[in-house]
Give the backbone structure.
Amino acid sequence: MHPSFWTPPPVAWRELRGWVDRLQALKEMHQQECNRMEAHLASGQTRLVQDIQIHLDWLNKQIKELECRINDHIDRHPDLKRDAELLRSIPGIGDITIAKVLVYAGDVRRFTNAKALAAFIGVTPRQCVSGSSVQRQNDDESNWTQRAAPRAVYA
């Protein structure tokens, strides 16, 4: 068996990865600032709360702009747009989750069917069979949740 040579993802995918990673970083900063604000509110430090609120407002603006850039980026690239439309057909999946799945799953056309993609993402139950016993693992024990991608998908 000779596996095919690795080829780097197209530039459009790499750019999308950069945008999605940046969005995740901004959202994490936002959560950190919310936690700080809660602590300073509890201790009555109103001046710090005002400064944190200014930063939170800026972060909210940046997050919204970045979400728009991500959607525009996907719309400008036919392969990404086609894959996004396929993913959008899944009930309950939104634009940001679509971008995250595209980034971490890569070219979804490499999967033979939707079941294979769902298994890769880790949203299908798995069974462990050993002799005569069958055990079902929780979703949080799947391969997908043990990597960085699920944090992005479920964040």
Notes: The beta strands are 126-130, 133-137.
